[in-house]
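SEQUENCE-TO-STRUCTURE ENTRY
===========================
What this section holds: a protein sequence and its matching fold, both as plain text.
Question of interest: how does this chain fold, as expressed in backbone structure tokens?
***
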Amino acid sequence: MAKPLKKYLIEREIPGVDKLTAEQRKAAAATSNAALAQLGDRVKWVESFLVTDKTFCVYLAEDEDVIREHARLSGFPATRITEIAAGLSPASAQG
């Protein structure tokens, strides 16, 4: 029986990541996808944001260990992994 997936925010320190070309971003996504394919349903990539010298990625995963394994397989560091406790948005004010 598969474990339920929890939501995580992963901070990756990658110097120059914000300056990647469209082709380099495409290749990075393909590398990540290949690592995800090896890990099966234990982890899913939701989205990532590139900022100066870092990425912030949202993942669904069984636990932090599978995120670390994705980092090892992909070559993209998982500098900080934080489980997301809850969400908040403008719509939260509506109840």
